[in-house]
């Protein structure tokens, strides 16, 4: 059988923009421009969210696009945030610093590989493990927030905090903890006027302190999976106890 030649241009161009943003974040991190590197990772997130939506809206989804997007994500949300945190705070720690960075990168690769094998099978309402863009945003938000705050009396503890967040984000990516995907939110239907006011308020808060707000949001999102999973495990244990008693 003849194979189809050529690729869909628009979504793959958007993926390339995201790949460049991730690559540029690495360059900025090596130069010590940590706040700018974090911003570049956030830009990569915007392109990553846009290319998938454009592909679905224009019906230009393909196996090539899915694989290319995964490889771009590996650079933007795997290598870039790990090197950003490493050059930012962990490069002077020695072996423990680069081991933490490698753990995060390896977990990101495993997370993306697992996600690719579950396309069309997994429940679309949830992600299995922390999504790599969310993990990258958590790290980028941490760095950019600290860069804006500047030096403080708590900087001696920053190395331990950065190490824990880096390794913890990596472990959450390969865990079986479920995270809400927000894919079933209907933006086309009618909604209450109050939601528009809330959206405007959230937008104003993000503009006022974007890095701090994004860091808090993605930290809360990372913790939400732990809370949801804990509640579900307790419910299952109660049901099992009830069945045994009956």
Q: How would you explain this protein's 3D organization?
A:
This protein is an all-alpha fold. It has a single domain, classed as Four Helix Bundle (Hemerythrin (Met), subunit A), CATH 1.20.120.1760. Helix content is 74%, strand content 2%. The protein is globular and about 60 Å long.
Quickly give the CATH architecture: Up-down Bundle
Shape: globular
- The CATH superfamily name is CDP-alcohol phosphotransferase transmembrane (TM) domain
How many DSSP E strands?
Answer: 2
How far do the termini sit from each other? 60 Å
Q: Tell me roughly what share of residues is in helical segments.
A: over 70%
Average pLDDT works out at 85
The profile of the biggest β sheet is:
2 strands, antiparallel
CATH topology: Four Helix Bundle (Hemerythrin (Met), subunit A)
Which oligomeric state applies? single chain
Separate helix tally = 8
Count of discrete domains: 1
């Amino acid at each position: 059988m003849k194979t189809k030649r050529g690729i869909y241009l628009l979504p793959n161009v958007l993926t390339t923009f995201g790949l460049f943003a991730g690559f540029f974040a690495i360059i900025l991190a090596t130069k010590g421009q940590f706040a700018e590197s974090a911003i570049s990772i956030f830009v990569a997130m915007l392109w990553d969210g846009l290319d998938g939506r454009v592909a679905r809206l224009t019906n230009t989804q393909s196996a090539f696009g899915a694989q290319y997007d995964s490889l771009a994500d590996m650079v933007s949300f795997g290598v870039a945030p790990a090197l950003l945190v490493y050059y930012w705070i962990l490069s002077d720690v020695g072996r423990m610093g680069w081991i933490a960075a490698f753990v995060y990168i390896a977990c990101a690769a495993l997370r993306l590989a697992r996600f690719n094998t579950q396309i069309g099978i997994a429940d679309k309402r949830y992600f299995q493990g922390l999504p790599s863009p969310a993990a990258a945003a958590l790290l980028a938000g941490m760095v950019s927030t600290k860069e804006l705050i500047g030096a403080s009396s708590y900087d001696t503890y920053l190395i331990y905090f950065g190490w824990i967040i880096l390794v913890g984000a990596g472990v959450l990516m390969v865990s079986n903890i479920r995270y809400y995907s927000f894919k079933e939110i209907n933006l086309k239907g009618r909604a209450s006027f109050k939601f528009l006011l809330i959206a405007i308020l959230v937008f104003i808060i993000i503009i006022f302190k974007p890095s701090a707000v994004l860091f808090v949001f993605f930290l809360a999102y990372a913790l939400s999976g732990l809370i949801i999973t804990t509640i579900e495990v307790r419910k299952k244990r109660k049901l099992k106890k009830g069945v045994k008693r009956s």
